[in-house]
Write a structure and sequence with these properties.
Number of helices: 12
Strand order of the largest sheet: 14-16-17-23-19-20-1-24
Helix content: 25-40%
Strand content: 25-35%
């Protein structure tokens, strides 16, 4: 009898463990604070099937090294409304016996994304120990003939298999992160791989570099080699990873990189291919040794997205979920995971990305900075960018404190802001992390033919939106 009782309680405990529900305390807290405005609704969100937004991508990296399990978070990707997702090709996982390829795991990822109307783009990167080439981050690029020929055979097989589902191919990840990968070594890999991709799919889009540290000298040296060999036309995009503690500090370097790339070929575009923020203090990887939290992570991601939209650059948020590296559980995920690579809860940054994608969808265009048209009564630096519809008509602005690293503080300053040339008939204020929509009534906002003036306008170190009410997809708050 005692054994039966013990077994009963063991079963109850097991069921409780399996069915336990976790919630985000930080998300709950963020929804308990608000600026001093009347809330009238929340941003209505649409899935990737409904939006298919080409501006935005999310990172689904490292599945090739089993640092994450796609099946465990697959259903969450399409909820963001994003149109793209970055994955890594995983040569070492696909070819475990020379000349034999097993693409089953990659089929699951590619098809799983396509089912949700998320277009996968593939980073062809890392070596294969089968040929004596390392397969991890900052791995040296192989230069011997046997490995290069095996690599090109693998690339060809990849492109032929997925060319009906994958249109864009990135060549290597952060090659300049290893001093051994000199410009001439990466240039040869880029040229030979791009040619193999285009031979297998003449319509393929080629993305080069995947730069870390934003080193323009490295980029220039590689581009010089491509130009010398008349191979510049192989390149459609130059991708970069702008990991700066203050995301706004990357702007000048991005603009410098863009001018450099355009000096070789005006056709080549920039692509922000991987960037995100930890949610705890990390001892490894990007943005380490800073006391990040889920609050500052969400603010950081909003500012990176706002900056990239302002510059008209396609962008990818790193990363969908926490990644279980051999030495740590990396905390960059929009979703918090456990050590079993299972979902625990959505972080505030998940909802923030979801709302930004739905606010800045394919029918929205950037007007760029309008700081020269703005007067505001604060000593802190504020960035203000304009938003237009497809016909070029201004439908709103976004603004934020841009002078410091995002903080954990959940409070807003109140400022008076005058914006010349802004004409909105029925403006609302939107806070994109929580997605809350607020009314703007006189005397908070008023207009004349030349300007709009807002008093007691909430501002903090994360983007806020002033938008034409009709331009915001939102559900009303029940009264």
């Amino acid at each position: 009898m005692k054994k039966l009782i013990v077994l009963f309680f063991m079963l109850i405990g097991a069921v409780s463990f399996v069915t336990a529900k976790h919630y985000s305390l930080t998300w709950k807290k963020m929804n308990m604070v608000a600026p001093r405005l009347e809330q009238i609704g929340v941003v209505k969100t649409f899935t990737s099937k409904e939006l298919a937004n080409p501006y935005w991508s999310v990172g689904c990296e490292t599945i090739d090294r089993k640092y994450a399990e796609f099946k465990n978070y697959k259903s969450y990707v399409g909820q963001l409304g994003i149109g793209m997702a970055r994955i890594q090709s995983g040569w070492a996982r696909c070819e475990k016996v020379k000349g034999e390829y097993d693409f089953a795991w990659l089929d699951e990822v590619v098809d799983g994304l396509c089912e949700q109307s998320v277009q996968p783009w593939v980073c062809l990167c890392y070596g294969n120990p089968l040929y004596g080439a390392k397969k991890g981050l900052n791995a040296a690029i192989f230069t011997d003939d046997e490995t290069m020929e095996a690599w090109l055979r693998y690339v060809t097989a990849m492109v032929k298999r997925y060319k009906d589902r994958v249109k864009e191919w990135e060549i290597w990840n952060e090659p300049n992160g290893n001093k051994a990968n000199k410009p001439e070594i990466y240039a040869e890999l880029l040229i030979r791989t791009a040619e193999a991709v285009r031979k297998a799919d003449p319509k393929a889009v080629i993305i080069g570099f995947g730069l870390v540290y934003m080193r323009t000298k490295y980029t220039q040296d590689v581009l010089d080699i491509l130009k010398k060999h008349k191979k510049i036309k192989l390149l459609d995009y130059v991708s970069f990873h702008p990991y700066y503690h203050n995301p706004d500090d990357a702007t000048m370097q991005i603009e410098t990189l863009d001018r450099l790339v355009k000096s070789y070929d005006e056709r080549i575009q920039l692509l922000q291919g991987e960037c995100g923020c930890p949610s705890i203090l990390e001892f490894g990887h990007a943005l380490k040794y800073h006391e990040w939290s889920e609050y500052s992570q969400a603010k950081w991601n909003m500012r990176r997205m706002a900056n990239d939209f302002r510059m008209g650059i396609r962008t990818s948020v790193f990363t969908m979920v926490d990644l279980k590296y051999p030495n740590m559980l990396q905390s960059f995920g929009l979703i918090r995971m456990n050590l079993h690579k299972k979902v625990i809860y959505k972080r505030p940054s998940f909802y923030g990305v979801q709302h930004m994608v739905n606010l800045l969808h394919k029918d929205r265009k950037s007007i760029g900075w309008i700081n020269d048209r703005v007067k505001v009564n604060t000593a802190r630096e504020i960035s203000v960018a304009g938003i237009a519809d497809t016909e070029g008509k201004t439908v709103g602005v976004m603004y934020w404190y841009s002078d410091r690293i995002p903080s954990d503080e959940l409070s807003w300053d109140q400022v008076e802001m005058v914006i010349k040339g802004l004409k909105l008939k029925n403006p609302v204020v939107v806070e994109p992390i929580t997605g809350r929509v607020y009314a703007v009534k006189l005397p908070v906002g008023h207009t004349n033919e030349e300007r709009m003036k807002f008093t007691a306008l909430p501002v903090w170190d994360s983007p806020m939106f002033i938008m034409e009410r009709s331009a915001v997809p939102f559900d009303k708050v029940s009264r």
